[in-house]
Amino acid sequence: MEFETLIVERLGATLRVAINRESKRNAVNDQVHEDLRAALTLVETDKTIRALILTGTGKAFCSGQDLSARMPPESGPPVRDLGAGLAKSYNALVKRLRDLDVPVIVAVNGVAAGAGMGLVLAGDVILAGKSASFLVSFGRIGLIPDAGVTHHLPRLIGEGRALAMALTTDPLDAETAERWGMVWKVHDDDKLAEASVAMAQKLGAMPVKAITLTRKAMRASLSNDLETQLALEADLQREAGFSMDYAEGIRAFLQKRPAAFDGRT
To answer: What is the model's pLDDT at position 263?
Structure first.
């Protein structure tokens, strides 16, 4: 499958997807959306893919929406319905990333700004190079943060820090992002790709069903009270407990050998 704006590589059971518009700092346009939809369909339909890595080429992860085609009229207010565009594009993309059956590792190789932040925060495990930076830049053009940023960012770093990032539009360096809990680990720039593949291999070797259910439970906990969450845990554990991966995990533990999980059963 050919992609105009992505570099897509199969690395064993991992699919590595890199946004490839270096001259535009990997800004997102309609073609990027189309290519990302196709790449996610590949992950959803190919049951041999056990993990997804999302990254960028060159010195940027993603600088956000490509604004070159959005010049407003010379006078008067803009006429484009940005809300409708979000529902069709970024909202659907973020939901698909969050709903994948496989873990999503985001390797932030440079600046992540605007909607690029939304793509970062939609991942499960966020790794960053030391030169990476994070920028909630929407206020610079008179917009509010979107692409899930207002949902995910306060939950990761707290409302105060998230609001300050949005209002000041000041960039956040990688090491501060790690200290604040937005990034799992920071690596030397030349080690980031290797570290992301190692993480994908680690998570890809684990029982995919258990990972999917764990993600569901963790995310639900942010809006559930304790009683509701305990009930959800029981329901999800019931589902996990009838899986072949659980049976294999128990056998491997008792037989003192590495488990060989088959993926999605």
So the answer is: 60
Domain positions in the chain: 6-204, 208-254
Would you say 196 and 43 are in contact if contact means Cβ atoms under 8 Å apart? no
CATH number assigned to the domain covering 208-254: 1.10.12
Q: How far apart are CA 177 and CA 127, in angstroms?
A: 10
Domains 6-204 and 208-254 share a fold: no
**219, 192, 44: which is closest to 128 by C-alpha?**
192
**pTM recorded for the entire structure:** 0.93
Nearest to 117 by CA among 39, 61, 200: 61
Q: Is pLDDT above 80 for 78?
A: no
What would the CATH number be for the domain defined by 6-204?
A: 3.90.226.10
Lowest-pLDDT choice from 80-89, 98-107, 141-150, 206-215: 80-89
Taking the C-alpha atoms of 146, 149, 151 and 152 in order, what is their torsion angle to the nearest 10 degrees?
A: 160
- CA 208 → CA 15, 25, 52, 233, 248, distances in Å? 15, 33, 12, 17, 13
pLDDT tier, 37 (very low <50, low <70, confident <90, very high otherwise): very high
CB of 134 within 8 A of CB of 179? no
Asked if the model's pLDDT at residue 113 lies above 90, the reply is yes
Residue ranges of alpha helices (H) inside 159-243 are 159-168, 174-180, 192-204, 208-220, 226-241
